[in-house]
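#onboarding

Welcome to the new folks! Below is a worked example of what a typical request in this channel looks like: someone posts a single protein sequence, and someone else replies with the predicted structure as tokens. Don't worry about understanding the tokens yet, we'll cover that in week two.

Example request:
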Amino acid sequence: MEYSRILRRIWVKIGERDYPLSFSLSVIEKLDTSVGGNLIQNIRKTPPMSLCIDGFAYGLMAANKGMKMEEARKLCNDYVLENGLAELIPVFFACIAASGLMGPAATKQMLEAFNMKCRDKVEAQDDDEKNGKKRKG
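Example response:
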């Protein structure tokens, strides 16, 4: 998985293609409603698979304007067949982290916990410099 703090997205590979997912405020609201208005408590522990599946589909639709639920659910199914059902949990948490809705400190901590590669050139350069690497160009 890769992320962009600038675009507030993550990317997952499904088949031969990278797909962006994004948890906008409206996606968080839908997910909050689906768990009875207590999303923050549910994400502090292992979220239910139904929440991860819904989140994956909503995240795809938010980042890929015009995508319908049927296509998003098919892509979710394809992702699960390629990676396993348990891999939906890191995608769910990575989407929450990349959204920035948990605040800067929690966002940074969550993204670091997943060892995700940053797509933002400036941030990637900063990370390389912190780790003693020099970037060409």
